[in-house]
Design goal:
about 140 residues, alpha/beta, 6-stranded mixed β-sheet
Length: about 140
């Protein structure tokens, strides 16, 4: 079994803790049901229509009973920061669209997309991001 983190730009094969790093476009290099832990922080770089398919494929890489962790930018929180004048338009655009991002999703939508094949154990917000932990059913 392996621990895997999906990353945008893979610069090395493993991080300092021994977690395998897999680039966004290399998901197919992971065998189905081979991961004991899968961390995903790349959904912000996928278009809305591509997310469901990507999540379905990623979840299949997990063994049943093993953990999924996802972290994304929370569009609603960033928008509220803009309307409350906490951030300016330039910072807003950088957060949402910088470095090829397409950040247009919310935690509520993510929960809807993964419920069923994943039992959500916890979820929450941290400033302008959200996270979700779950166990593959």
């Amino acid at each position: 079994m392996q621990r895997v983190r999906l990353v945008l730009n893979k610069q090395k094969d493993y991080d300092d803790q021994g977690t395998r790093l897999v680039g966004l476009n290399e998901l197919d290099t992971i065998s189905d049901s081979s991961c004991e832990y899968l961390e995903c922080e790349v959904l912000d770089y996928l278009g809305y229509d591509d997310r469901s398919k990507f999540l379905h494929t990623a979840i299949q890489k997990l063994r049943i009973g093993c953990e999924l962790f996802i972290r994304c930018l929370e569009f609603g929180a960033v928008y509220r920061s803009l309307t409350n004048n906490t951030i300016g338009l330039e910072h807003f655009n950088q957060l949402i669209y910088g470095n090829g991002k397409r950040s247009i999703d919310t935690l509520k939508n993510l929960i809807t997309q993964v419920q069923g094949p994943v039992n959500i154990t916890s979820a929450g917000y941290n400033k302008e991001t959200y996270w979700l932990r779950g166990i593959r059913c």
